[in-house]
Design goal:
The structure holds two protein chains of two kinds. By secondary structure, chain A is an alpha+beta fold. Chain A has six domains: 69 residues; 111 residues, Beta Barrel (OB fold (Dihydrolipoamide Acetyltransferase, E2P)); 201 residues, 3-Layer(bba) Sandwich (Phenylalanyl-tRNA Synthetase, Chain B, domain 3), CATH 3.50.40; 71 residues, 2-Layer Sandwich (Phenylalanyl-tRNA Synthetase, Chain B, domain 1), CATH 3.30.56.10; 196 residues, 2-Layer Sandwich (BirA Bifunctional Protein, domain 2); 75 residues, Ferrodoxin-fold anticodon-binding domain (Alpha-Beta Plaits), CATH 3.30.70. Chain A contains 22 helices and 36 strands. Chain A has a seven-stranded mixed beta sheet with strand order 27-28-29-33-32-31-30, with helices on both faces. In chain A, strands 3, 4, 5, 6, 7 and 10 form a six-stranded antiparallel beta sheet that branches. A five-stranded mixed beta sheet of chain A has the order 12-15-18-19-20, with no helix packed on it. In chain A, β16 and β17 form a beta hairpin. In chain A, α2 packs across α5. The radius of gyration of chain A is 42 Å and the shape is elongated. The model of chain A has no long low-confidence stretch (mean pLDDT 94). Chain B is an alpha+beta fold. In chain B, the strands form two sheets. Chain B has a six-stranded antiparallel beta sheet with strand order 3-4-8-7-6-5. Chain B has a two-stranded antiparallel ribbon with strand order 1-2. In chain B, β1 and β2 form a beta hairpin. The radius of gyration of chain B is 18 Å and the shape is globular. Classes of the chains: A alpha+beta, B alpha+beta. The interface between A and B is large, with 65 and 62 residues.
Chain lengths: 786, 196
């Protein structure tokens, strides 16, 4: 919204104050002012009122005329002018030699064989409208030579306030409300609005009007006739233009002017079309043509202004084409009303049609404003056109009153909220300057919120704090730290475990942490041959490609791996993120926070990579939980899993996730030659595992003995279990040192480390244990590699 | 709201981190009331907005929210805290200024501007020659929000602030396309090493 300092100054005397500084303070205390501030009129000078005394046709040009103008300097000036509307006796705006218009300085100029000593200007050239059809015609009485800036309010400061920052302030949608803020900030008096006394029309008949729907809170109207003037005063047109509106005709301009001045939208109907004004909704939808000649579909929720049963306007949004003021209109009915803000908002959304009026109504306008707006309208109208006759009494139905807001609080409350000392006097003065009724008795303030703030904005004590502090100025605050006792807080287990996992994976294994989306990207899954599994869906996704929430991070991670195959021959990625596994018993998403890790390698075999990953996870379990992992073969259930090489992961007794090789078809689509393995672990399950406490045992002073044995097997788990089953206290450690494949099939080499606390081991006693293990394994069909 | 993602069961993907305030108050209110332990919390979170994506718009991004609640937390404390915290974040002395701003979960609510990081307040193209950058919303926690969390607003006050974590990271590292961060592209992401 554009605002004019001249207009604001109608209501508050700002003489002697730095206007730019006031605007800056307004931006910090009230609503955000955009950076560009326009100094209107500053780029023109030397333009005066001049009368055209003679007009002669140019001998060679059909367009040009040779004029002699009286610019008030005691002689006639020769001017060559191309405007079509020149005529003898017409007064216009004349840029004399030496005048400036923007970058141009007017100088004598040869034009088609004649010299022009100045230029007659259009309104557009002066910058007061976009009319460039001809030169400006000055109808006001002013002697030739009068500087046009003295005649009209061309000099002005125009600033723009971001509409979004006014959402909660219905009172700031007109200059009068803005002026109230300036008055409070400047410590000056806000002048009352100059209004007509409507009481003198009380004896006149009332308008036949009735509110039949409580979505209309208040409806005020009055009838006038005999409007003889059609063109608005220049100063009014300038203000409207500076504020972004176009001059139309006196009545339209005046309703716009009132809206920009008071924030009250108004509408003028041809009285013949609204003999029985009724405000209501209809039972069935119908089509309606608004005054912009657009046919719109109106449904049963939209409040309408009607002539008995014929709709004539969409309440609060736009008038109808049929009831518009036309050339032969003699009597008009002026509407000033307030409607339910939510209903207007919803109607504009349904109609997809937002207007200057609806924008204001959506903010909960002050219902107390409808009558003063009419009184102000009549005052301005009769000042402009003294022939105008008011022909009805003010007709006003106030169906839904706003709730009066009274608030009480004490000085301590203000001190506690602000943290600084603001005096009782300042508090009362500030609130009064903003139109609040504020009184202090003893320690207690009692405040009545003015109607223009009470509809929505100021309802609780904390709102009052804002009023006091914003006018006080946040820049003026003495700022200090909060004082509070220091208490240690126990670290959150899951968060701590998460941080440790990330640290180990990044710092020890140089994995990359990635983030991915929580939904399945259909296209990307499809490209890898991964099914999008049935799961809860988004109902309103703008992109249908992302409807389904993921059940696992692994597929999205594989898509990311595919994207990065050119990055390096070997890399690993991980993510800790959320997945949803359908709905739980309470119909809520069964959410899980998962760790997913994928390793990609073009240099290692799948087996090597698998053991790398298993080892990595074992380190996580050992470092974070001092616990061991065990693996157990399981069936594939998802399209990305390898049918055979898939294991459940247990930490202690607890199932925490799975580790596996990516399905060969998926793997090939990612990269024909690379090995790809993945693991996924439920972080909450992992975090919950009890830390195995460290049991210290004195290291043996005697040498350890390593024995390597190879078994023909494609799985380590049975071997590990057989060694464990031996329950031999001499075994200190078991590790896989090699895997290889030959004509006998796949083999795994394990290294068993033996030691005795009190003596050197003999080969015989260790071999006895090894033999027992081999025997145990042979029974289950796994033979030793010879 | 139009830009929220709704799920079939009526749940939604959170569009801001403020929702967590309620859980935090409920969890720590007993310590606050019984033992006088002030609530000081900071909570980053993933947020989702249902909108078309481009270099400046993402449907999935991080925000961070902070709250402090105790018996005498004031606007003065809020300004001090924001100035101190932001000076730490940017590792230089930051000037802050508050303007009234309307956010439903705070009252009074503010828009916080910081002195332009590029020109230091002199005015440059980055700050549209105003010397200030609009950074984040903050304010005094709305009494109803405290009440809903089981904290008596007559006895306790608090402040809250929100930071666009993703936007802050973009500012800090000069990331021009917000989508890079969720792209999974190791060429982009491997540049963010652990020591920052």
């Amino acid at each position: 919204m554009f605002l004019s300092m001249n207009w604001i100054s109608d209501f508050v005397d700002l003489t002697g104050l730095d206007k730019m500084e006031l605007i800056r303070r307004f931006s910090l205390s009230t609503a955000e002012v955009e950076n560009d501030i326009f100094h209107k009129g500053s780029d023109i000078s030397g333009i005066v009122v001049a009368e055209i005394k003679e007009v002669a046709d140019h001998p060679e040009s059909k367009k040009l005329h040779l004029l002699k103008v009286d610019a008030g300097d005691g002689q006639l000036t020769d001017v060559v002018c191309g405007a079509p509307n020149v005529r003898v006796g017409m007064k216009t705006a004349f840029a004399k030699v030496g005048a400036k218009i923007g970058e141009i300085e007017i100088a004598p100029r040869p034009l088609a064989g004649f010299t022009s000593y100045g230029m007659c200007c259009s309104e557009k050239e002066i910058g007061i409208s976009d009319d460039h059809a001809g030169i400006m015609e000055i109808l006001d009485d002013a002697p030739c030579g009068t500087d046009i800036k003295e005649l009209y309010e061309i000099d002005d400061i125009i600033f723009e306030v971001d509409n979004k920052s006014l959402t909660n302030r219905p009172d700031l949608w007109g200059h009068y409300g803005i002026a109230r803020e300036f008055a409070a900030l400047a410590g000056r008096e806000l002048k009352p609005l100059d209004c007509a006394d409507l009481a003198k029309y009380n004896s006149l008949p009332k308008v036949d009007m009735k509110i039949e729907d409580n979505l209309c809170q208040r409806y005020s109207c009055i009838q006038v006739e005999n409007i003889t003037k059609n063109v608005s005063p220049v100063n009014m047109r300038i203000r409207l233009f500076y504020c972004g509106m176009r001059g139309i005709n006196l009545l339209a301009d005046l309703t716009n002017y009132l809206m920009l001045e008071m924030g009250q939208p108004m509408h003028a109907f041809d009285s013949r079309k609204v003999e029985k004004l009724r405000i209501k909704r209809f039972d069935a939808p119908f089509m309606f043509t608004t005054l912009d000649a657009v046919e719109r579909s109106i449904d049963e929720n939209t409040l309408m202004i009607c002539n008995d049963n014929t709709p004539v306007a969409i309440a609060g949004i736009m008038g109808g084409l049929d009831s518009e003021i036309v050339e032969d209109t003699t009597t008009l009915t002026l509407e000033s009303a307030t409607f339910d803000a939510v209903s207007i908002r919803k109607s504009t959304v349904r109609l997809a049609h937002r207007t200057d009026a609806s924008m204001r109504y959506e903010k909960c306008l002050d219902p107390e404003m409808t009558v003063p707006a009419i009184a102000r309208f009549i005052k301005i109208l009769t000042d402009i056109d003294s022939d105008v006759k008011v022909v009805s009494s003010l007709t006003d139905e106030y169906a839904v009153k706003y709730d009066t807001v009274n608030l009480a609080f004490d000085k301590k409350f203000v001190d506690r909220y602000t943290g600084i000392e603001i005096s009782n006097d300042t508090i009362v003065k500030t609130l009064k300057s903003l139109g609040f009724d504020a009184e202090l008795s003893g320690d207690e303030f009692s405040v009545t919120v003015p109607s223009w703030r009470a509809t929505k904005d100021v309802t609780i004590k904390a709102d009052i704090i804002e009023e006091i502090t914003r006018i006080y100025g946040y820049d003026n605050f003495d700022i200090h730290t909060a004082k509070a006792p220091l208490y240690p807080v126990r670290a959150d287990l899951e968060k701590t475990v998460e941080d440790k996992v990330k640290d180990i994976l990044v710092k020890r294994y140089s994995l990359h942490e990635l983030h991915s989306y929580v939904w399945a990207y259909y296209d990307e899954y499809k490209a890898l041959g991964i099914n999008v599994e049935e799961n809860i869906k988004l109902v309103n996704a703008t992109n249908p490609n992302i409807e389904t929430i993921r059940k696992s991070i692994v597929p999205t991670q594989l898509c990311q791996v595919k994207y990065n195959t050119g990055y390096a021959t070997d890399f690993g990625v991980f993510e800790i993120g959320r997945v949803v596994n359908g709905l739980n018993d309470n119909n809520l998403c069964d959410e899980h926070k998962m760790l997913a890790v994928t390793l990609f390698s073009k240099t290692k075999t799948v087996e090597e990579l698998y053991f790398d990953l298993a080892n990595m996870l074992a380190v996580l379990a050992d470092d974070i939980k001092h616990n061991e992992l065990t693996f157990e073969k399981t069936e594939a259930t998802h399209s990305y899993q390898h049918l055979k090489n898939l294991n459940k992961i247990f930490c202690g007794e607890k199932l925490i996730g799975e580790i596996g090789v990516v399905h060969p078809l998926v793997s090939k689509k990612i990269d024909k030659k690379a090995s790809i393995v993945y693991a996924e672990i439920d972080m909450a399950d992992f975090a919950e595992i009890e830390n195995a406490s460290i049991v210290y045992s004195e290291p043996s002073r005697y040498p350890e003995m390593d024995i390597d044995i190879s078994f023909v097997s494609d799985m380590y788990a049975p071997i590990g279990n057989a060694i464990k089953a031996e329950e031999c206290p001499l075994i200190k450690n078991v590790s896989v040192v090699d895997t290889y494949t030959d004509e006998a099939g796949k083999s795994i080499t394990v290294r068993i480390t033996f030691s005795h606390p009190e003596r050197t081991l003999t080969k015989e006693e260790t071999m006895a244990v090894v033999d027992s293990i081999v025997e145990r394994l042979e029974k289950s069909g796994i033979s030793m590699k010879k | 709201m139009q830009d929220t993602y709704y799920l079939e069961n009526g749940q939604l993907l959170k569009s801001q981190t403020s929702a967590a305030q309620n859980a935090i108050y409920k969890k720590y209110k007993d310590a606050l009331v019984n033992d006088g332990v002030p609530i000081k919390a900071i909570f980053p979170g993933r947020c989702f907005r249902n909108e078309a994506t481009d270099a400046c718009h993402e449907n999935t991004f991080f925000q961070m929210e902070g709250v402090m609640v105790d018996k005498n937390i004031s606007i003065s404390n809020l300004i001090f805290f924001m100035k101190t915290m932001l000076s730490e974040v940017f590792q230089k002395d930051i000037k802050v200024r508050l303007r009234p701003g309307f956010f439903p979960f705070v009252e009074p609510g503010f828009e916080l501007d910081i002195s332009c990081l590029i020109c230091g307040g002199e005015g440059c193209p980055s700050c549209k020659h105003s010397g200030w950058l609009e950074l984040c919303p903050c304010g005094m926690i709305h009494p109803e929000v405290l009440k809903a969390g089981g904290i008596d607003p007559e006895e306790y006050t608090g402040f809250a602030f929100g930071l666009g974590l993703t936007r802050l990271a973009m500012m800090k590292y000069g990331v021009k396309d917000i989508r890079d961060l969720n792209s999974g592209s190791l060429r982009s992401l491997s540049q963010f090493t652990d020591d920052e």
